[in-house]
Amino acid sequence: MYKAIIRPFLFWFDPEKVHYFTFSLIRNISKLPGFKSLFRRMYLVEDKKLERQLFGLTFKNPVGLAAGFDKDAKLYNELSNFGFGFIEIGTLTPKPQEGNPKKRLFRLKEDSAIINRMGFNNGGVEEAVERLKKNKGVLIGGNIGKNKVTPNEDAVEDYKICFNALFDHVDYFVVNVSSPNTPNLRALQDKEPLTELLKALQVLNFQKTNSKPILLKIAPDLTNEQLDDIIDIVKTTKIDGVIATNTTISREGLQSENKKEVGGMSGKPLKSRSTEVIKYLSEKSNKAFPIIGVGGIHSAKDALEKIEAGADLVQLYTGFIYEGPKLIRSINKALLHN
Asked: Quick one: average pLDDT of 274-278?
């Protein structure tokens, strides 16, 4: 029904407007009697065999929603009814920001992909904290970044502000230095500044009564030498894992007319490169740290490939938009029979 009727209707309209319309629709429908239970019956797969123990946390199943979909933690309770084992909110910044000028979100229908140059648009970390206080048992990841106006030499302070604000309200943290849509942000992936940033967050982390897992989200465009640096950085800073990968600036093999739009590309064309990065990190590090695999998952087969490559958990974003919530159920069912 989703791919035959709902998606064609939604795809007639501007993607950013559709995003907010869909949020409102899901929120309002979920308030109606019986619909929460209906969604859970349709999409949720509950089985102890799906549980994963990572970072000292119990994930009900290994299929999560990637950051960027529920940036401001406005819909995580309702979205969890579609069967996700965990939901990552953000990217959040200390101060609210509008993000980049519109139009900034583009469907590449022929490629089953999306290009975005949103630019960390969000209402600021404090607003999100107020919403997270209403959490009804959803396992939450907090994806944090810096404000656009903050120079890289001051970036550590922005991440520390977000870390402290979110600490009591999320289950794990994700440090985002890999979005291509904030000027110079990816320069923070270089070995020296990234090590400094992660060490600073770990100092804060270990000052808390109970520390929280910290993960690093990396770009798919890193070279093998840079991936070797990532492995060294994880070891040096003793962070808990890596999310591979963010969106790509590559446009190789795309067919859609709007393929030259500036921004990060996600979806099917990213699948192979994302899996390559996962496999490289897993094998080169001798599986020294957990990996969350994301990028181009549009089927259960795609998810299984990520796991076989070395991912411990997977996340959806563009695949969720193109394939609908049935994708979550199909992945979990396939994992049970794999």
From this structure: 98
Q: Per the annotation, does 318 bind a ligand?
A: yes
Long-range contacts of 2-8 (CB under 8 A, 24+ apart): 2/323, 2/324, 2/325, 2/326, 3/323, 3/324, 6/324, 7/322, 7/324
Architecture of domain 2-337: Alpha-Beta Barrel (3.20)
Q: Which of the following is catalytic: 179, 266, 274, 282?
A: 179
pLDDT, one tens digit per residue, over 125-180 is 999 999 999 999 999 999 999 999 999 999 999 999 999 999 999 999 999 999 98
Query: Would the annotation count 91 as a binding residue?
Result: yes
Q: What is the dihedral angle through the alpha carbons of 189, 191, 196, 198, rounded to the nearest 10 degrees?
A: 60
Q: Residue written as tokens 């795809």?
A: 11
Asked if residues 212 and 167 have their Cβ atoms less than 8 Å apart, the reply is: yes
Asked whether residue 245 carries a pLDDT value surpassing 90, the answer given is yes
* Predicted pLDDT of residue 1: 83
Is 7 annotated to bind a ligand? Reply is no
Residues 6+ apart with CB under 8 A from 34: none
d(CA 141, CA 57): 11
Name every residue whose Cβ is closer than 8 Å to that of residue 269 and which is 6 or more positions away in sequence.
111, 113, 252, 253, 254, 296
Q: Is 148 annotated as a binding residue?
A: no
Reply yes or no on whether 272 is catalytic.
no
Task: List the domain boundaries for the chain.
Answer: 2-337
DSSP label at residue 253: T
Supply the mean pLDDT for the chain: 97
Residue 251 CB burial class (10 angstroms; 0-12, 13-18, ≥19): middle
User: What tokens does 182 get?
Assistant: 């904030």
